Structure formats: C-alpha cells, structure tokens
Amino acid sequence: MEYDIDKIKQSLRRKLDNYRYEHTIGVAYTATSLAMRYGEDIKKAEVAGLLHDCAKCIPDDKKLAKCIKHKINITDIEKERPYLLHSKLGAFYAMKKYDVYDKDIINSILNHTTGCPNMTLLEKIVFVADYIEPGRNKAKNLDELRKIAFEDLDMAVYIILRDTLDYLSKKTGNIDDMTQKAYEYYSNLIANRDDNCNQKDDSCNKEDSCEKEDSCNKDDSCKKESSCNIDDSCNKNNSCNIESKE
Ligand code: DGI
Ligand code: FE
Ligand code: FE
Fold first, then answer.
1. What are phi and psi of 168, to 5 degrees?
2. Is 88 in the pocket of ligand 1 (CB under 6 A)?
3. Is the shortest distance between the CB of 114 and ligand 1 below 6 Å?
C-alpha cells in the first residue's frame, strides 16, 4: 500500500497545534528508526507515528460527542478522562479521513496510550516511540530508556508501563484496565525471560568448561587465552544473550 506522507503531514499541520505537530514528527521519526532496528516495515511505522495523535487536539467535550455520534464505545474511565479517547477516535479517523485500513497500523494507534498485552512489533514501536521521541523531556530516565529502546524493546515497554503506573498512582489514581493488564503482561514476560536465562546460566556454569573460567581468571597468563573466554560459548549454547537483546 502506498501512503501519501506529504498529504498526511499537510492535513496534520491544520488539525494539530504546533507542539503536537512537532511531537508527531518526532514520533514518526523515532518509530521509523526503531522499525529499521527491529525489521518492521518503515513506511507503516512512519504512518502509524504520524497518525497516532491525529485526534488529540479535538476538545474533550467534542471527543465524547464524536464517539457517541460514531458509535464508538466509551468506558467509565474514558467518560471521566476523555483525553484517553484520542486513541480510539484517532484510529477511527485514520480509517475514515486518511484511508488507512492496515489492521496493524490501526491497532498501533488504538493501543498507543494504554498499551495492551502481547502487542505486535509495530504496536510496541509506536508505544515506545511516543514516549521517547526527541521532543519529550519530562519523564524520568529518558536518556537511559532511549538506549534500552534500541537494545531491548520489551524491556522498554515494561519500563514505560511501570513508570506510567507509578506517575498515575501519584497523580490521579485513575488507571485504565488495559494499562494495568499491559503492565502485568510485560512484567511477567520480563520476569519469566530473566528466570529462564538464569536457569540456563546456572546449568551452563556447572559445565566443566565453564568451571574452568574461575581458575583461569585468577591466572593472568590464562586470561589472555581465548579458550578462557567461556562466557561467550555459554551464551551461544543457551541463547540467553540473544533472548535478552531481542
Ligand atoms: O498523547 P500523548 O500525550 O502523546 O501520549 P499518550 O497518548 O501516551 O498519553 C499520555 C498520557 O496518558 C499520560 O499523561 C499518561 C496517560 N495515561 C496512560 N495510561 C493511563 C493514562 N491516564 C489514565 N488516567 N489512566 C491510564 O491508565
Ligand atoms: Fe497520544
Ligand atoms: Fe503522542
């Protein structure tokens, strides 16, 4: 599918205020970079990044009215905090106003605020790009997170959900079910992944060749020998390293 990026940008220029437009360009740029890193379709990432906040600048009362008009389901928390509706309304406008029907792009827009369990690669890319794009400066540990995002995408998703819940619990205490579910999913995923890795590490360390590492390390001359670099072969055997980096 061909997307007319210039046309989308021109329309967003009119629909969004300056700050939101610059943020949008930042998200598209960051999502494209993450797509290059993780092997996602770069045009899809750019379009999803461009359109993720396309409904953000509609006043809250209008958001509610438009959702009612277009029969978009409104949950209790969305009634209370209508800004949350910009994701659902944005996904709707992406289809109706921008002719974008790619399911993955639409779901990336739909889930970009709360996240959700078991996100697709594109959903994770948009979710993370929204939080780390260069124009963002308020969240804590952004420099570290920007690095992690390009090394370990699931870890970045987990940290964002954890920090968002922490921020919301101090501020409003009003948590969308989906944010909570997404947090639990990624928290379990990271814990299980690390558990598996540790178990494999353990058995690896029991291997003869690995045990030699300790004594080797005590001996300067031995350290220089490549055979003493057991860590490497351990990691290749059990792919712990690969898992933790994907
Ligand atoms: O639209 P953006 O500002 O670019 O970013 P966004 O769509 O991720 O929205 C960010 C805001 O959404 C931020 O203030 C945290 C808030 N948010 C995320 N999950 C929840 C939430 N707010 C409430 N009340 N409940 C949630 O579960
Ligand atoms: Fe948003
Ligand atoms: Fe955004």
1. -70, -35
2. no
3. yes
Of 141 and 6, the structure prediction assigns the larger pLDDT to 6
Residue 199 lies in a domain: yes
Q: Among the atoms of ligand 1, which is closest to the Cα of residue 115? A: 19
Long-range contact list for 201-210, CB < 8 A, 24+ apart?
201/234, 201/238, 201/240, 203/238, 204/234, 204/237, 204/238, 205/234, 207/234, 209/233, 210/234
119 assigned to some structural domain: yes
Taking the C-alpha atoms of residue 211 and residue 157, their distance in angstroms, rounded to an integer, is 36
Structure tokens at 18: 């300056």
Judged by average pLDDT, the poorest of 70-84, 149-163, 168-182 is 168-182
Name the residue range of residue 97's domain. 5-206
Write the CATH number for 14: 1.10.3210.10
* Rg, the chain, Cα only: 22
pLDDT tens by residue, 190-238: 999 988 877 776 654 544 433 333 333 333 332 322 222 223 322 322 2
Tokens of 143: 């420099």
- Tell whether ligand 1 has an atom less than 6 A from the beta carbon of residue 168: yes
Mean pLDDT over residues 2-27, rounded? Answer: 98
Q: Is residue 39 in some structural domain?
A: yes
Pick the range with the lowest mean pLDDT from 44-53, 122-131, 150-159, 208-217. Answer: 208-217
Is residue 219 assigned to a domain?
Answer: no
